[in-house]
Structure formats: C-alpha cells, structure tokens
Amino acid sequence: MTDVAHTSEPTPHAPDSIRQLMDTLGIPYREVSVTADIPEHAQRVQTIILDDSAGTLMVLFPQDQLLDLNRLSEMTGRSSLTVMHPDRLTRVLNKHELNVLPGLPTLSNAPCLYDERLLHDGCLLVESGEQGVLLEVSTEDFRRLLTKANPGRFGEPLETIHPNLDRPEQDQTEIARAVSTFTARRIQQRLDETLEIPPLSKTAEKIIKLRVNPEATTDDLAGVVETDPALAAQVISWASSPYYAAPGKIRSVEDAIVRVLGFDLVINLALGLTLGKTLSLPKDRPHTATPYWKQAIFSAAVVEGLARAMPRALRPEMGISYLGGLLHNFGYLVLAYVFPPHFSLICRHVEANPHLDHTKIEQHLIGITREQIGAWLMRNWEMPEELVAALRFQNDPTYQGEHAVYANLVYMATHLLRAQGIGEGPARAVSPELYERLGIKPEKAQECLQRVMGAEAALRELVSQFPH
Question: What Gene3D superfamilies does the database record attribute to this sequence (predicted)?
Fold first, then answer.
C-alpha cells in the first residue's frame, strides 16, 4: 500500500520520520493528496492535543463528529483540559520537523483517547505531518497503533446537530429557549426585556435617523460624526489611509466624505464602527481566532470589492454591502454579552474542533448560533432589513430569499478570506452556482481578494485603531 497517488503536479510526501515510523511498525499505508479524490469509504481522523496541570492528552475522533469537552471531562475526571496553546504545539512539531499534527498515537509518549466509532469504517485517513498529504490506513492496521490508547464515546455526530440556517421566524423562540436553559428558569417576559442588551448610543441613533432621511446632506452627516471626537478621528484616519490613496492631506470629516469616501460609505462606516463598539470585545477568545476588528475590516474590504465586480444590473447598495461585511461577526460579541459564563466553553470547543463551522458548535452547546442572535438584535435595533439578511443567512450559500445578495456576498468573502488564514473554521470552495448567481467570475473574485491582501499593511494600520 505504499504507492503514491498520481496527480498532474508533483505530490509532496509524508515526512521521512513518519514514513520510517510506519515502516518500522510494519503498518501498510498509501499516501493520498487532499487535492485528489478522497476515497468515499474512508473516515478522516481528527487529532487534537489537550493539556492541563496533569499533562498532555492526545485525542482522536472521526472528522464527522464534534469533540464534546464536557463528555471528555466526565470520562477522564479532568475538568480543566484545554487545547494546547498554538505556540507550544509549534515547538512540538518543530522538534519532529513536522508541519501539522499527525494522527499517530505512537509518535508521542502522551496518553491517548480515541472515540471507538473511529473504527467502524474499513479505512482511515490520517494526517501525515505534511500539509496536504494524508495516510490511508486500513482500520485493522490502525487498530494496532492503539494498543496503549483507551476507547470511549465523547464525540457528537454532526448529523444530529441542526443549526437553524433558514428559519428566522423561529429565532426568537430558540433564543428564549437557550437563555432559559442557561438561567435555569422559565422566561415569561418579552425577549428584549430578558436579554438586557445595552441601548444604542446617541451617535448611532442620530446616524440611523440620517440614513432614512432622503434629504440628509454632507453637512448633516459631518455634523453628526463630529459630535463624537473618537468617531471623527477614525473617519478621517480611514480616508487618510494608504488603502484609499487620497491625494493631499485630509483635514476634516467633510473632506473625508467629499474627497475620498463618499456619503454612502461614510454613513455606513460610521454606523458600523458605532455599533461595533456598543459591546466590548470579550477577554476570552479561541487561541487561533482572528482578532474581531481585523476580521471585520478585511471582510468589509473584500465584500466591497466583490460588489464592485458584479454587473451593474445586479450590484447591490455599496454602503450596506460594506456594512454587512463590517458587522458580519457581530453575533460573536452578542454571544459573549448574553452568555458570559458559557462563552469560554464555546471558545474551548472552537479550539478543539477546527474542522467545524462555529454554527455546529454553538447549536450543540447553547441551541442557537451567533448569526441568529446577531440578526435578531439588528432587527430589534431597527437596522435595515438588508443588513439583517446579510447577518442571518451568511452561512447558507444557497439562500435566495429577499436581500439574498448581501448574505451571498458575505458568504463568498468570508470563505475566500478563510483560505488566506483570516477568520475561523474550514475554508470551503465557493460553488460555481453562487459565482453565477452574483455574476462574478471566479478569477475576478480572486483578483479582488489579492488586491485586498496586497494592501494588508494599510488595512492593518486601520485595524490598529481598535482594541484587540
């Protein structure tokens, strides 16, 4: 089984240390490129290293499962297990000259637990230690690697977790149920009284009134922005950024509006910045998570570029498109605010399940997703329905309901950025159907993405204005 799958380009090999280990143990294997056709009958092994004061623990489970840390704690009696910090993991990998963590318990002296359902399939695909290369091993042969490992059942099959992606009429009921679960009491009050979400700032209220006023002028907008010195400084800094390459010095908010950004972008930018600061950034976050404002600003830039790449007949309102990208992850802040004792648990599960979208994890742990609660709050604050749709349906690439273009653009932008290491969760290829629906050619989308990534230094300068 040691033949290598053939592709049109040279396929990288598993590291020499891993190949020697497999040969020494007498375990037949076949190297498979992740870009090649993965055998349908094969189960992919997800590997994670946890640690606490008692030491490290290697955990193996099927990739079609969510690792439930609560069940693992009950099974092991170790309640403080968390994913090994990325810096420490990097040192471990470097020691063995590996790029990714292999799913081979014999490589480490650490104790190992595996979900027994891992052995239900006839064939397994295991990380080899080299990015993009898997080892195909028969289940019987892999079982020989588990002689010192302990079995258990601590995963939750993904087929049992059903995030509500497309039924917004049920959001309020599901949010109330989730809150009720975590407060251990039945909620009789209205949802907006129960959640105690902070009120909008005066600046946000003024900007919202301007948005719906068809007679609002540049002077009106500049006047509102200038009443908030911090916001005014950010708008001027935005317009002065190398990203926009404005000629001459930007001396005022009016200058920023008239000469560089335009009325539509500034009013939506100001609204997004103001709403984004309504809720403070949580002190906890997944180790590998992109900082909130970096993800927001890069997403807004890519959404804006994608919208401009659309045919004029299909092109949505640019300001709302930008705002949708800027606030797409706002539900993350709301979750941290509404469920503070449990937000840390969500973070730890995101770390332990890098192969999953956060929607599966949040649905499993609290019964709702950040998209549901974020969109609900936007509607409660009487934000535009286009923005509500952008947040609510951003994870459904097939959504074609009202204002679908905004949600579809956010989906495309976030998945293009995930492939660049910005954002959280697995990066999925954007479907040809979605490209066609938006009227964007894949090569144009890549050009847009590379334009934004090429301006990374300028965008990082904007990000640096915000708390991390």
Answer: Hypothetical protein af1432 (1.10.3210.10), YbaK/aminoacyl-tRNA synthetase-associated domain (3.90.960.10)
Tell me the pLDDT of the chain averaged across its residues: 86
Length of the chain, please? 468
Over the stretch 356-390, which tens digit does the pLDDT of each residue have?
A: 999 999 999 988 899 998 999 888 888 889 999 99
pTM of the complete model: 0.80
CA distance 125 to 142: 10
Cα(303)–Cα(414) distance, rounded to whole angstroms? 9
Strand-pair partners of 137: 124
Structure tokens at 373: 């609660």
Distances (CA, A) of 448 to 309, 415, 419, 453: 8, 13, 14, 9
Cα separation, 182 vs 353, in Å, equals: 23
**Cα separation, 464 vs 256, whole angstroms:** 19
Distance CA 42, CA 61 (A): 13
Give the pairing of strands 112-115 and 30-33.
Answer: unpaired
Residue-by-residue DSSP string for 280-308: PPPS---TTPPPHHHHHHHHHHHHHHHHH
Structure tokens, 37:
């056709």
CA–CA distance, 375 with 158 (Å, rounded to integer): 24
Give me the pLDDT at residue 37, please: 63
Structure tokens at 458: 């300028």
Domains of the chain: 16-160 (3.90.960.10), 168-198+279-463 (1.10.3210.10)
pLDDT 10s digits, 28-74: 999 988 877 677 778 899 999 999 888 899 999 999 999 999 899 88
- Give the whole-angstrom CA distance, residue 126 versus residue 104: 8
Q: How many CA atoms lie within 13 A of 54 on its CB side?
A: 12
Statement: residue 458 has pLDDT above 90: no
Confidence of residue 162 (pLDDT cuts 50, 70, 90): very high
Rounded Cα distance between 339 and 223, Å, is: 37
Tell me which H or E stretch contains 74. Answer: helix 69-76
What residues have CB less than 8 Å from 31, skipping those under 6 apart? 2, 4, 5, 11, 13, 14, 128, 133, 134, 135, 136
